[in-house]
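Dear colleagues,

For the upcoming journal club I promised to circulate an example of a predicted protein-ligand complex. I picked one with calcium ion because it came up in last month's discussion. The inputs are reproduced below in full, followed by the predicted structure.
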Amino acid sequence: MRILIIEDDRSIATNLYDFLSAGGHAVDAAADGVTGLHLAIAQPFDAIVLDIGLPGMDGMKLCSRLRVEAQVDTPVLMLTARDTLQDKLRGFEQGADDYLVKPFALKEVEARLRALYKRSNGRVTSKLLVAGDLTLDPRMLDVRFAGAAVKLAPKCFRLLEAMIADPGRVFARAELERAVWGDTQETSDTLRSHMHLLRRALLDAGHYDPVQTVHGLGYRLLTRAPT
Ligand code: CA
């Protein structure tokens, strides 16, 4: 894989660089946000390791600019120093695909990057999906709810894409985790966080939440407003 490391901590950056290079990857590195963003836009990478606390431009800002302004969808693994739900939600909202809390094992970084890479190459569907007031266009990455455009982070989009394929059916949590995150082990917190963001975005756009929690089982997508 071609991997970009954006990290200002010299020893972490060097460890990552050496480990991933030794594993046969083509690695590039930047020690500040501005250089990192330029590299991420100018060169094709298969995955990016992005620290949040960076000089120049922090990782959150960088990720958001990469996604929104540059329209680059290279998978991003965010490194966070604090393990709080707020940090994770913010990271996912800015378009990060996965996160890892410091300190981490180098082997785990590589495993996560491989999983992200595999997933980003696995998209196949192309027809417009419809459930009640909700439409999802997998090709244009466009979601509309009751006529209003819904802006979703990549993983929230995948989550909705999985459920809209079979409206009304109850999807088990494990099934959704597999559909969105592949076979890597995610914590239930990750699914919960993304489901929360997805439901909030849909509620804002369509004035009701079409996702129903089925206690003890999972989630279902409703095709009409709950009465
Ligand atoms: Ca840092």
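Two points we might discuss: The chain has a mean pLDDT of 89. Residues 86 and 193 are 9 Å apart (CA to CA).

See you all on Thursday,
B. R.
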